[in-house]
């Protein structure tokens, strides 16, 4: 059983020339956890992973693995192993020699390293293919070999750079389950970079959402889903609508926000000044669709798009300053009272389903 290590990222920045890719981020990744870095292309997540691995130098700040500062250590001395997006297998070597390669570089005896490589292939259920070469394997099989090669060094943390991006949708789902099972079996810290919200939600104990080189939120998947910290998180995760306006009043822990179109909305919260710009988030699956004549807690709008998704229907509405306010209705609810593009509708939600969103300081 490998030992797990806490990863402590302390005020770490990465600057390329005049461009700051990562802005003094700080984060503690608990030992033995599955952590997913999530965000759009260019947000700094891969640069952060490569700095943890030692494949990218740190401009300022420190990275600690367990109780050791590894900021200036080369990759091989850090106690981490990295699995690259391309898998980077050697085409001329069989699977045993591919997996054993790092031990060969360390001068481990041939019989010892080959025996350990075969053990790792057994862990990945790939021992039957031990004498094959990478070109004779499917994408999913190549991924297992790359994982075996990364894990043979008994790392304290395994770093994964978009490991599922090259796989077809069905295999992605299967390999997700295998990665989670492997992490629980080994008990080591996994740090996984992805741009897929679904992947991060399915795998992670902690999701770190990055945008423009900063951490917008680092929390458990359920907290990210139910209480997004910022408007960016709410929009990026796709499960909250965002309405923007200014504080009209503050009374007894309830803020009233006015939007440019004239409507006002209540949200629980305090510490904001009258006239201050604020954002609120409303869960897409908690919005109710009603006829425009009915009394509503939300606003009236116009249906701009409808997508049938099997168990649910996604209805997009224009109104209250939003071009893409979304309602996720069950198929039963929708077809009991269907609407069409161009229809005027009323939307409503309960006060407890609105979340006051924060802002990330520059």
TrEMBL record:
One Pfam family of this chain: ABC_tran
ATP-binding listed as a keyword: yes
Question: Is DNA repair among this UniProt entry's keywords?
Answer: no
Keywords of this entry:
ATP-binding, Nucleotide-binding, Transport
| One GO molecular-function entry | ATP binding
Q: Which residues form the ABC transporter domain?
A: 7-237
Tell me its family: Belongs to the ABC transporter superfamily.
Name used for this protein in its record = ABC transporter ATP-binding protein
Q: What species is this protein from?
A: Rhizobium calliandrae
Q: Tell me the lineage of the source organism.
A: Bacteria, Pseudomonadati, Pseudomonadota, Alphaproteobacteria, Hyphomicrobiales
